[in-house]
Amino acid sequence: MSKRLFRRNFIKKSIALLSGIFVAGTGTKNLQAQNQRSKKSSKYDEPANDTIRTIKSLRTTHGNFTDQDIPDSKLQIILDSTVRAANSSNMQTYSIVVVKDRDKMKKLGGYKASVMIVYCVDYNRLKSSAKSLGHSYYPDTMTDFVTGSINTGLAVQTAAIAARSLGLDYLITNGIHRGNMGRLWEILDLPKEHCFPLIALYLGYPTQEPANKKGRLKNTGIIYHEKYHTLTKAELDEITSLYDDKNHHIALNQDWVPKGHKHYLDWLFTAWARRPKPADSETQIFKILKRSGFIELQKS
Ligand SMILES: Cc1cc2nc3c(=O)[nH]c(=O)nc-3n(C[C@H](O)[C@H](O)[C@H](O)COP(=O)(O)O)c2cc1C
What we know:
With 300 residues, the protein is of the alpha+beta class. The chain has helices at 3-44, 50-56, 72-82, 102-109, 124-132, 142-165, 182-188, 233-244, 264-272, 281-292; strands at residues 94-99, 115-122, 169-173, 195-204.
């Protein structure tokens, strides 16, 4: 190689190297700036659009609904929205019973509102379709029940978001599991097999706005990046103090200190978690799941 050619190649390579370093340097700076921006935006920015605003406005009305009815047009939009939720194999393994009789809803779930919607994990529509076409279909495993519960849970939350976007308030409750659950089958005429009322949604207008919106834990112990880890003592202390910070409104009440507890979580794990519960409530659910065919294999 001639001296001149060697010098030209050397200059070319040096320029390429320097510009690479320059670009990489700028990239790092960009990344840092991006991180700064995303930290700032999650902390300070207003929600970006109506959907996010609606999601951020979600809050429960704990049963204090007025007597005002909701228009059927809004109810229809909510029903159309609830079935839009993602569901496994698009099999929609649920049924949804809309109840407008207020006495009936009180008996079913313990609350009254304009409308109550009972969401059931339910495979009977599919079983009937299979039978009418000459197939046997038996969704008799816990997997079927778990998958059905996921589908049903997503549907109810989607309905709550739709309701809130229409200016309505809601209560999602498992009040239907309190007391003798046999009443649900009696009042709603539910099928005995492969149908389990999972959750209920009450819709309406509240008698009063809640004093504050409940906060949430958002980072430590909730969100992990790339890999899970066991929480350290410092992280657990941080969580304890987040519950104790009354500005966050994560706690269900504010009076754990007068009740003799140092931290909110002391109250939660003693008074609340150990409150008397009907002895047979879990047994009841277990028995119903067995009768429904979701627990014991009944393949035909
Ligand atoms: C499975 C489930 C059951 C619930 N049951 C009741 C209930 O019986 N009564 C009630 O007032 N709220 C009930 N809630 C609402 C929660 O108390 C409420 O979502 C939680 O305290 C957070 O408050 P927020 O929804 O206002 O943010 C239930 C929520 C879920 C998901």
